[in-house]
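[stage:ingest] chain + small molecule (uridine-diphosphate-N-acetylglucosamine)
[stage:ingest] validated
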Amino acid sequence: MAGRFRKFIDKFSFNKEKILVTGGLGYIGSHTVVELIQSGFEVIIVDNLSNSNIDVIKGIEKITDIKPKFENIDCSDYVAMDKFLSKNEGIQAIIHFAALKAVGDSVKRPLPYYRNNIGSMIALLELMQTHKIPNLVFSSSCTVYGQADKMPVNENTPIKLAQSPYGNTKQICEEIITDALTANSTLKGILLRYFNPIGAHPSAYIGENPNGVPENLVPYIVQTAAGIREKLSVFGNDYNTPDGTCIRDYINVVDLAQAHIAALKRLIDGKVESIEVFNLGTGEGTSVLELINKFEQATGVKVPYEMAPRRAGDIEAIWADPQRANKILKWKTEVSLEDTLLSAWNWQRYTMDKENSAKRHFNFLSMS
Ligand code: UD1
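[stage:predict] done
[stage:export] tokens:
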């Protein structure tokens, strides 16, 4: 739709459903914001920019022609969130992404994970009651299964001991939500257990751009391919898997974002009695070495790597049985792993082009 026409429509649609997205400038949050806007929702973002960047808003605007409302708030700050929600009445649902999320880092620094992830969850649930916000979509993770005995895992697979403080915060948050929603019949929720989200929007205007050295595999791969990092460390090649490296279910981030729209519509349509859980994955497992090979094949770019010791907190192998989401949410993944890896690479190149042209502009200004 042409930009001006889109803005006109946006300005005069008064009956759009208002959705609050916490962590909406983060990786999965920003892709979900784009899908929400394109599905006709009004989006409000709160984000404390701890692992994101204000420029993400420009990327969202480039794709959708709409600049969503944004406030820099830490959602574990009850008072600030209370004030913010008093100014923004009529929110239909919260999609809660804002959280710390690195497995290895959480083993080294557990307390910020507990304070932030659990503190914000409790604050939001209390505020949902005060401000009469009826629906919640929670960004959970397959990490809640711990190391499951049988693959693939479905939603009835027993929850084992969490392997990391990060995993534990997701388990605890799921329990807190379940208790809060069971006790209050006006609140409804969906827990989405993501497997491993990777890739970027096909426009390359938004993608995964962690602050500092990347903790996750694909951002590290693309930065190594781009020459920003010297070598990728493969954490452990002595696991009980065919090539000795860990196995994950890598899911395209836009596919993942679209599952949030399906979940949200199910909540708003009143189809959820209290709380529902869905696995979001492809159903395929890929090892770290296979992923590096696929990246090299898809992009034609080499990724220098070396074997390194295991990373504390890692699960050996996990992949999803996504049938419940396929059936009930009428959702499934569409984008191939190769195209997903290519989208991550395109995003990296776009980011570098942008930085280089900013540098050129700066040099030009300082010379003139
Ligand atoms: C975990 C969760 C995932 C969540 C993510 C958030 C599991 C199974 N998955 O992902 O749902 O979205 O946290 O961060 O718990 N690796 C290397 N070298 C690196 C980086 C990673 O070899 O430099 C390896 C890891 O050891 C792991 C795999 O790559 O085997 C994936 O790691 P990562 O991308 O960090 O995601 P998970 O920790 O699996």
